[in-house]
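Hey, weird one. I pasted the Methyltransferase sequence into the form twice and got a warning about non-standard characters only the second time. First submission, copied straight from the form history:
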Amino acid sequence: MPEPAKNRLANRHEYIIHLTYKPTYYYDLAAYRQYMETNANPGDVWMIEPERSMSAHLAPFPKEIVRRAITLACPEQVCLTCGRPRRRVEERTAILDETRPQARRAMELAREHDLTPEHIKAIQATGVSDVGKATKFQNGTGRNAAEVQRLAAEAKAALGGYFREFTFAKRETVGWTDCGHGTPGRGVVLDPFVGTGTTAGVAVDMGRDAIGVDLIPMPDTGLWTAQ
């Protein structure tokens, strides 16, 4: 946005505020990681290019903002009986991000020393590190079964400083939660200031339902139905 003041720097970011009415809210970080093509948490800074709009609306925003928000916070399916969203069930694998030299070296060492899937699981149960201060912060370290600790020690001897790489292994989706009612419906996106319908249009494109409210809706978007 233009900055009228001459004695301060122009603002180059806007906040997106995530509000929930209860602590156990739906949030699919795995879907967002896939969307952003990364195995790590992508962080909370979004670099999004502006989009040109020919609309008469005074405050349009890029569709990419909506795609990211829906990916994170609106489930694909919700039970029409109890209202519970279907949540992703994930398991951690032994696959690392091969674009990182450290990850490639860790996998090489694991193969050279014939580490088994049980060794990898023991590493992941132990946590980021099994030495120094980190032992006080990793729930698994020092609290696992003797067999797990033995396997983790063997892996540590084989991997050395590359031990921690396997705590960042990729996750895979193995299923979805099911409340048992058998009445799935699409997730719903509500836009209380729908304007030209950018949010509603993106929601429909992403397989969700959408509800839009506005004092002066703009009917030329093709999204509106008479009520």
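That's the output from the first submission. The warning seems to come from a hidden character in my clipboard, not from the data itself. Confidence is low (pLDDT under 50) at residues 131-139.
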